[in-house]
Predict the 3D structure of the following.
Amino acid sequence: MDYTASQKGFRQQPNVRLRNSSTDGFDGSQLFEDTSRSGSQTTPFRNQQSAPHDAGFSGQAILTDPMSNLAMAYGSSLASQGKEIMDKNLDRFIPISKLKYYFAVDTVYVGKKLGLLVFPYMHENWEVSYQQDTPVAPRFDVNAPDLYIPTMGFITYVLVAGLALGTQNRFSPELLGVQASSALVWLIMEVLAVLLSLYLVTINTDLTTIDLLAFSGYKYVGMIVGVVAGLMFGRPAYYLSLLWCCAAIFVFMIRTLRLKLLSEAAAEGRLVRGARNQLRMYLTMSIAAAQPVFMYWLTYHLIR
Amino acid sequence: MAFTLYSLIQTAILCTNAIAVLHEERFLSKRSGLDQGVSGFGDDPGIKAQVLNLIRSVRTVMRVPLIIVNSASIVLLLLFG
């Protein structure tokens, strides 16, 4: 009887998950699929299985001892209290809920975005789609910035740098840390410089600091492609692939930032005179031009 | 160029100190051009006014933390070289 009931519960799960994913597709405000319901439905089944086992072990009196029950209950309540305090305090310094948005990606998005970063010339619509004033999660819009690719790109860059140094017998484990902190410092300085220049030119944009961090992190993809090509095929391949990726990231940045930084009229391509619009154009161009410079600066010492 | 996070902290402390030691009377007031133009509510304050605003606000905000950070770094550098 018990078995059939849990079996029915088990069979109900795929429907529940399907319903969840369809609302996810419509709703969009849900960043991640809710797998908690399916998880809680499997655990009663497992508990029923484990309970007869425990009663079977008559030698194990520890779980039936009321004192240890009390200790377990107290310990778990203490743990949950500590977790609550940690979450509350951490949320004040690092906005975790905002960060979750940038990591709501899936494989299709990552594939399309990587393709865009290397070949942005055919893509036509660069606007980020919104859903009632909040930007749509990156999973549903290929133009939205994310932090997954920059983070993975950074880590891969450090590893590939170690690999490149190793093939030239210049490797030591401290160098990995040096490369990582060096690249991180350059990234921070670039983001601060962009923030400062955005403040000085008084551009009112909805670009957040994390967006700028994401855009500055996209160049790691091109750097990795260049270094790997240089490792496999020698210096000419490194220069060629770096040139291609520099041009690609230049076009990508210009087309993405154009919609965010320039005024409406200028973004559509009409020629708008005026000192401010010119300044904005120069700012967009210099942000985009800084990317190839950094890409070369951070990789040329790896290929000798 | 091997930058470390420590050198970034050093740079930040030195730059903030440099901004904090600028003299208000002799230097900053002379640079602000026409003060009425600076404090207007127009939507285009101009780069010079923005820079001066930034310098003034950094000085106001970072005065006390800079004292603390400078004292701490002096003590640490004396102790640990």
